[in-house]
Design goal:
By secondary structure, this protein is α/β, with parallel strands linked by helices. It is about 45% helix and about 15% strand. The protein has a 5-stranded parallel beta sheet, with helices on both faces. A two-stranded antiparallel ribbon has the order 2-3.
Length: about 210
């Protein structure tokens, strides 16, 4: 939902907005190098442990061990294979990354992502350059909390020196958008590049070319 008002700060989610994500690629890789089916991997993946990893409570190795131990036993998932598969869920940049260098000329542009150090340090920074076109990047593993918890939105507002009514969140997860709206953010539920560009324009956000 986009409301009228003056926007000074734009917060972009990463996965599903700036990067195309495909979890099946990871599951397929792990299945190919173990004795486990994709359904086994999907059904037993420990999502609560993953959330702990995303808020910096687990090291890379602790996360791997926790995932391996959660899968049907015995299994032959090796740590090197796990991380190779982990990287495969990041497919490519979306067209929306082209907005960043245009928006940053007139607005404060931020990344706000539930993510983990392995993806950021080993994949995003080495494969993509969109981080160069933002004012600052806020990651759940640095902040110790994750969307949709109100805490992370309040933290980034404080760190950015921003007011919610002057800020817009662009996110592809409905519950994240709903929480941000409750706190006073303007929001766009991301569907695709074209609709997002239209909604930004409808909110008076101008792109400098």
């Amino acid at each position: 939902m986009v409301k009228n008002g003056i926007i000074k700060h734009i917060f972009f989610d990463i996965g599903g907005v700036l990067l195309e994500i495909d979890h099946v690629r990871s599951l397929q890789y792990w299945s190919d190098c173990t004795d486990l089916s994709i359904d086994d991997l999907k059904d037993h993946f420990p999502h609560e442990i993953h959330e702990q990893y995303e808020i910096g409570k687990l090291t890379d190795h602790e996360f791997f061990r926790a995932v391996k131990d959660s899968l049907p036993q015995p299994n032959c998932l090796k740590e090197d294979d796990f991380w190779r598969g982990w990287t495969k869920l990041i497919v490519a940049e979306t067209e929306t990354v082209e907005l960043l260098p245009l928006l940053i000329q007139s607005y404060n542009v931020y990344l706000l992502s539930n993510t983990n150090p392995r993806h950021i340090k080993h994949e995003v920074k080495s494969r993509f350059s969109f981080q160069e076109n933002v004012t600052h990047a806020f990651y759940s593993f640095d902040l110790g909390c994750r969307k949709p918890n109100a805490e992370i939105f309040l933290k980034v507002l404080e760190l950015a020196g921003a007011k919610p009514e002057e800020s817009i969140l662009i996110d592809d997860v409905e519950v994240n958008v709903e929480q941000a709206e409750k706190l006073g953010f303007k929001t766009i539920l991301y569907n695709n590049h074209e609709s997002t560009s239209i909604e930004l324009a409808e909110n008076g956000i101008k792109l400098r070319t």
